[in-house]
Amino acid sequence: MSVTVPGYSPSFKKPPETLRLRRKRARNPADPGAGAAVSPAGPTDLGPRRAALAAGLRLRPFPSAGSRSGGVATASLRRNPFARLDNSPRPTVGPGPVADPTWPPASPLQDTGEPVSDPSSPVVPSEVLDFHQENNMIWKEEFSERTTVKQLSMTPHHQHSKYDIPSSESVEFPVDWSIKTRLLFTSSQSFTWADHLKAQEEAQGLVQHCKATEVHLPDNMQEPSNNPYVFQDPRLSTELRCAFQQSLIYWLHPSLPWLQLFPRIGADRRIAGKTSPWSNDEGLQQILMSEWSISFTSLYNLLKTKLCPYFYVCTYQFTVLFRAAGLAGNDVITAVLSPTTRGLREAMKNEGIEFSLPLIKENGQRKQKVSETSLHVAESEYKTEPEEEQLISDEDEEESFSWLEEMGVQDKIKKPDISISLKLRKERNEVQMDHRPESIVLVKGLNTFTLLNFLINCKSLVATSGPQAGLPPTLLSPIAFRGATMQMLKARTVNVKTPVYSGYKDQFSLEITGPVMPHSLHSLTMLLKSAQKGSFSAGLYTHEPTSIFNTCTQMEKLPNKEGLEKELANCGLHLKTLSQLTQLPILGKSSLRYMEMDNYICNWRS
């Protein structure tokens, strides 16, 4: 129970015992008051303070003599506890910061461990000092699957984000062959031009996509133009809104509206509980696989005739990316599979499919090729030079059987054959890279047609149990094909207030969700560059198993790149987008995570 002292109003009642002990320890031991401060105002001020000390109440320190005149009461110097800490001037003594003299004392030691010279001078906590260093703070966005525009945090300059790996500034960002699941564009300019498309604009966008119509917009739509069809306000530009509708379209097979068919890897929990009448009906499964085979063959034929630039085959275990000749620096049709297993690679060898492992290097320099079709030749896949191989095997044997010599029974134990040891070592290395990025497989040329037949007849392509049992793989394509269904990426605009140093400002965002393929990412950035005055930022969320598709599979540039681009002119993509897809991938195992365009200069991070 607290004791009320007349004429004294403490800031709180009955502090903990530790604070009382710390308060007494900070005072001069030679003080005759035994912990009670002597007021220079006279003996009349000692009564209430001694009574408060006897009651166990915490007292405010006396101000310095130079900061008041005469007997001014200490209560007149009390600060507002709800005021900002940086609104009042802070005196500085020496190179380090000095605390506000009205702040309550917290500890007799400063941060440096030195005793406090003045007992009445308080110690400012380190977190308060960190709070004042606003000039050394920057805002950054935390990119996660559930990040919104409001989730901003301050990070000191010396700390780096986990995405601050290779970055660059250029007019265009590099090609990214991974599939994005979500795009979050933010800008200081409004995205209202992307809202509530009219029926005529939506229909016109669909027709433009089906006819592969190229839309050419000015770099800045808000600048004067001689074109009467380009308006100064992006919200009034029908051409811009139709092009936005056109860039959101993709093609999918099979189409089951009650199931989300992408991504397929790790989708068992999302699909569990959904209706799947084919799971226990073999006849229905055969019909679904027959239709899927027709659609798959149709896509490959379009790819071979260069009427389709690329497409994806998404299974429940791995993903396959087919690319037409001329894309990613290759002059032939290519297919990359990831992740793979030893069993899948052995099955491909048995079917006569020649492939290579781009990330497996021989002797740390040359790339390892796997083109053997028989088991005898396949044993040399990870083979080194004969002399080195013999030396390594001898060293391993000596280390393995050294303990037998110590026991004196080395003559009674038969050593295994060297060929068996090499085979076991090779199998161990193959199993260790299963389901990892290093297991990516590259198939080129006519072998892609053999791969097509292999995938159609492969029994392990479809799950036999679980929520995805009997469900054919998902086919994703930028253009129409037999049996495909037109789908739309979902777009949503959000306007929020974001905190800044001086208050709040309007922050506009545009969110795109769905399987965003490389051509859609490039088309959307071209539209935003024109509509947002060349300034916006984007958080890119990747389906991680597809990041490995950015591995470069060709080390030299194509000699006839212009000719191959002309042959792909009818594939349904914008010429600028097509030109980007022909570039050599430079991202390696990673993918684009963040992109910022400022004054038409793109800054990206992977």
Task: Summarize this structure briefly.
The chain is of the alpha+beta class and 606 residues long.
> What's the total number of strands?
18
Please list the strands of the largest sheet in the order they lie side by side: 10-9-11-8-7-6-12-5-13
The secondary-structure class comes to alpha+beta
Give the overall form. Answer: globular
Integer-rounded radius of gyration: 35 Å
Residue stretches low in confidence (pLDDT < 50, at least 5 long) are 29-46, 64-76, 90-166, 362-393
User: What kind of sheet is the major sheet?
Assistant: 9 strands, antiparallel
Intertermini distance: 62 Å
- Global mean pLDDT: 74
Provide the helix percentage: 25-40%
Beta-strand level of the residues, as a percent range? 15-25%
Oligomer: single chain
Tally of individual helices: 16
Please give a structural write-up.
- The chain is of the alpha+beta class.
- Among the domains are: 1-62, no CATH class; 157-248 and 489-551 and 588-605, no CATH class; 253-374 and 437-486, no CATH class.
- It has 16 helices and 18 strands.
- It has a 9-stranded antiparallel sheet with strand order 10-9-11-8-7-6-12-5-13.
- Strand 17 and strand 18 form a beta hairpin.
- The longest helix is centred in the middle third of the chain and has 23 residues, at 282-304.
- The radius of gyration is 35 Å and the shape is globular.
- Residues 29-46, 64-76, 90-166 and 362-393 have low confidence and may be disordered.
Essential attributes:
606 residues, alpha+beta, seven-stranded antiparallel β-sheet, 16 helices, 27% helix, globular
